[in-house]
């Protein structure tokens, strides 16, 4: 959470309300992966590869806590 506090001034210039919402979603996904002991970059790379053939009613299987490779 320290990077969020350090960048607070920069967040005033996200560009738009939509940009701010997108950044909030990205921060949420990244921090959730970290809290679950997952490398966020690896997980965020894995999800798009899985999502094309994935059923919408099984979206829980793509969450960080279900990611097959735990970070060391």
Summarize the structure.
This protein has 72 residues and is mostly helical.
Helix percent band:
40-55%
Low-confidence stretches: none
* Main pleated sheet: none
The N- and C-terminal alpha carbons lie at a distance of 20 Å
Radius of gyration: 14 Å
Query: What is the chains' assembly state?
Result: single chain
The share of residues in extended strands comes to under 5%
Count of helical stretches:
3
What structural class do helix, strand and pairing data support? mainly alpha
Give the averaged pLDDT, no decimals. 82
Order of helices and strands: HHH
Query: What gross morphology would you assign?
Result: globular
Instruction: Count every beta strand, where a strand is a DSSP E run of 2 or more residues.
Output: 0
Looking at this protein, list some descriptive labels:
72 residues; mainly alpha
What does this structure look like?
- This protein is mainly alpha-helical and 72 residues long.
- The chain has helices at 2-6, 17-35, 40-51.
- Helix 2 (17-35) crosses helix 3.
List the helices and strands and how they pair.
Elements: H1 2-6, H2 17-35, H3 40-51
Helix pairs in contact: 2-3
């Amino acid at each position: 959470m320290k990077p969020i506090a350090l960048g607070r001034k920069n967040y005033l210039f996200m560009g738009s309300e939509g940009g701010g919402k997108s950044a909030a979603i990205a921060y949420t996904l990244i921090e959730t992966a970290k809290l679950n002991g997952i490398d966020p970059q690896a997980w965020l790379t894995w999800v798009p590869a899985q999502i094309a053939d994935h059923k919408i009613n099984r979206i829980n299987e793509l969450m960080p806590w279900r990611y097959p490779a735990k970070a060391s």
